[in-house]
Amino acid sequence: MMQLIRRVVTVAAVSTLALTGGALAATAAEPNQQDADWLVANTQTDLAEITLGNLALQKAQTDEARELAQKTKSDHETALAKVQEIAQAKGVDLPSEPNDQQKAVAAQLEAASADDFDLLYGHAQVTGHLQSIAGTEAEIANGSDEDVVGFAKVYLPIAQGHLEMAQMLVSDLGGSAPTAVPAGTGGQAAQAAESFGLPIAVTAAGLIALLTGLVLFRRRRTS
């Protein structure tokens, strides 16, 4: 399993090189609302992943979780710099912190016990990257600015590599994670909850309830 994880890391590392390359197009179309919204969402995802990566490097108990944390942290730091460069050139204002749901997930993970942390972190990574992938696919399909769409095309396989690593982490820890969801946070939270029989509201509080439910589910299985 570790060899498979290293293969995913190696493939993602090759893709990461493209994050830093390429000059902005001189004649790109003006960004539409889709482009601006994706730049904002991607910035928040990058900031959240950097925060979670630092947290996991402190709290993770397994090599797989620490490897995932280091990989996501490094890639999202690189992605954040590129998004900021594009947004500045396009006149798009970016947030300076993650969104409320991402902050709530980080707080839940920070409060998690050492025994529960890795599985909770894995699930948070799966749901977060499913959401990011869905949003990126929407940008590729509907964006108008070639620089923004071009970067989304570079970013997509990197996010997919992170997702695969997170799914393997959850599987190795005896958990079960969704593999596909409709676009939007609600779809992801609902799909993940359904796989554990957890009827939760599709809100930031609902995602926290999901993570709490996963802890209880894990404890029932190991008791």
Automatic annotation (TrEMBL):
State the Gene3D superfamilies in the record: 1.20.1260.10
- InterPro entries linked: DUF4142, Ferritin-like
Keyword Transmembrane helix assigned to the entry: answer is yes
Where does the DUF4142 domain start and stop, copy by copy? Answer: 34-169
Q: What is this protein called?
A: DUF4142 domain-containing protein
Cytoplasm in keyword set: no
Parts of the chain that traverse the membrane: 196-217
* Residues in the signal sequence: 1-25
Origin organism is: Nakamurella endophytica
Lineage top rank: taxon: Bacteria
Q: Which UniProt keywords apply?
A: Membrane, Signal, Transmembrane, Transmembrane helix
